[in-house]
Write a structure and sequence with these properties.
By secondary structure, this protein is α/β, with parallel strands linked by helices. The chain has 4 domains: 145 residues, Rossmann fold (3-Layer(aba) Sandwich), CATH 3.40.50; 167 residues, Rossmann fold (3-Layer(aba) Sandwich); 67 residues, Helicase, Ruva Protein, domain 3 (Orthogonal Bundle); 67 residues, Arc Repressor Mutant, subunit A (Orthogonal Bundle). It contains 19 helices and 16 strands. A 5-stranded parallel β-sheet has the order 2-1-3-6-7, sandwiched between helices. A 5-stranded parallel β-sheet has the order 9-10-13-8-14. The radius of gyration is 33 Å and the shape is flat. It starts with 7 loop residues before the first helix and ends in a 16-residue tail after the last helix.
């Protein structure tokens, strides 16, 4: 192949390499290397060359390439043997094999190892340029798909974020259960703790990961609609039914996982039909007479204590024991306060990227407030609180003022100080002295929980800090309340 060398003006013109496709030519013949470099540079690509695999590895490690032209027969080396290493990494380059005496076996092996194409020498420039354009387009599409998949993983993250002993134990059990892809699982926990996240985590770490994950809220539909949604229905099964019939969620989740959320809300009549599915591994469409295989793992989730529901007659005992093969308890956020800073930063990174803001962290007061809140809405409430702060904050640190306002304290007046616990000595009956004793007492009673103390006193946190300073009551660190990590 004969090609013209690039002009001096092309070679000497300053270029921005980061915006150009990067191509590597690996060939032990200097004429081939220089000719291909000149030809490919005319496409607007940045082209580098290497005479052997070792040099190619070094260049690839220094700055990854989008496309590699690799000679199949290098001096003393088998180019095919370097294909795996050249294509290592999260976004490997496309590779085109060049061969002067190729065989069908070589081509098959190259394609099996991930080569984009095989070109025999001598080759026509037009053909090589067409292959280059196609391979670079393939590479662009792969990178775009990879980024989109990363975005999807970000938005539907199945990572259980936390470092507390409670969450580590839960994750260990979830990973063990994932290895048994047919076992029925019951996940219990308060609303907002992340029960669906645990179910997704198990699904994506099981052999069913390539199958669908389908979730349905059993409390959101009436009994008849839920039955049709789960099992599907035959044509004309009920008034308004489609003439063609319809598959249900058991069919949609085939070879995957079906999450029955809020299983405790399922009507008793429908519980009987679900029990049959678990026993027989089959189901029937509404109005149908033919059994269909239920090739799906069932995961049930509830914020109720099903054992208590059974005792009250609101849940079938036989179904409970069918679901109760493996039970996972998701702890409420108030029982794993150590995870609040980690979760808060995780959500802040997420919302910062979504909103295009540079949100660098939390002020000490803001993080103290987050760690002191009791989080009745659990992780869902924390996520909403961080989204609220991210919207209001223009950038930089999240200050306490950007957080939602909470009432604080415990329900039912349980934070109130007993009537007989506050006595005023005769010599300390000034309003200032009484205020000092009251503030000090409330701080001690709440173990220097600033949010709770402020709520009991009926003032905001800033006012409480000012009174602590006014009366020289010390600091939270001096009373065993160490700095919360930010």
């Amino acid at each position: 192949m004969a090609v013209d060398a690039p002009s001096a003006s092309v070679l000497n013109t300053p270029v921005n390499r980061n915006s150009m496709p990067r191509i590597l030519v690996v060939d032990d013949e200097v004429g081939i290397r220089e000719g291909l470099q000149a030809l490919l540079a005319q496409t607007g690509a940045w082209v580098e060359t290497a005479s052997n695999l070792l040099e190619a590895y070094r260049r690839q490690e220094h700055h990854p390439f989008d496309l590699v032209f690799l000679d199949l027969r290098l001096s003393g080396e088998d180019g095919l043997s370097g294909l795996d290493r050249l294509r290592s990494g999260p976004t490997p380059p496309e590779v085109v094999l060049l061969t002067g005496h190729g065989t069908i076996q070589d081509a098959v092996e190259a394609m099996r190892k991930g080569a984009c194409d095989v070109i025999e020498k001598p080759f026509e420039p037009a053909h090589l340029l067409a292959v280059t354009e196609r391979c670079l387009e393939t590479r662009r599409l792969r990178v775009r798909v990879s980024r989109l998949q990363g975005r999807v993983r970000e938005l539907t993250s199945t990572e259980l974020v936390g470092q507390s002993a409670e969450i580590r134990e839960l994750l260990d059990r979830a990973l063990q259960v994932a290895k048994a892809p047919d076992t029925t699982i019951l996940i219990q926990g308060e609303s907002g703790t992340g029960k669906e996240l645990v179910a997704r985590c198990i699904h994506e770490r099981s052999s069913r990961a390539d199958g669908p994950f389908v979730a349905v809220n059993c409390a959101a539909l009436t009994e008849s609609l839920l039955e049709a949604e789960l099992f599907g229905y035959e044509a004309g099964a009920f008034t308004g039914a489609s003439r063609e019939g319809k598959d249900g969620l058991f069919a949609a989740a085939e070879n995957g996982t079906l999450l029955l959320d809020e299983i405790g809300e399922m009507p008793l009549n429908l519980q009987v039909k679900l029990l049959r599915v678990l026993q027989e591994k089959s189901y029937r469409r509404v109005g149908g007479v033919k059994d269909r295989p239920a090739r799906v793992r069932i995961v049930a989730a509830t914020n109720r204590k099903l054992g208590e529901e059974v005792a009250a007659g609101r849940f079938r005992e036989d179904l409970y024991y069918r679901l109760h093969v493996i039970t996972l308890e998701v702890p409420p956020l108030r029982e794993r306060v150590d995870d609040v800073p980690l979760l808060a930063h995780n959500f802040l990174d997420l919302f910062g990227r979504q909103m295009g803001k540079s949100l660098t962290g939390f002020s000490e007061d803001a993080m103290e407030t987050l760690c002191e809140h009791t989080w009745p809405g659990n992780v869902r409430e924390l996520r909403n609180a961080i989204e609220h702060a991210a919207i209001l904050c223009p950038g930089g640190l999240i200050e306490e003022a950007y957080l939602p306002r909470w009432d604080g304290g415990l329900p039912g007046g349980t934070d109130m100080i007993p009537r007989d616990s506050f006595a005023v000595p005769d010599g300390e009956r000034s309003l200032r002295a009484i205020e000092k004793r009251l503030v000090d007492l409330v701080l001690e009673e709440t173990n220097w929980n600033i949010s709770r103390a402020a709520s009991i006193l009926g003032i905001n946190r800033t006012t409480l800090y000012n009174k602590i300073k006014l009366h020289d009551l010390g600091s939270r660190r001096a009373h065993g309340r160490g700095r919360v990590p930010v």
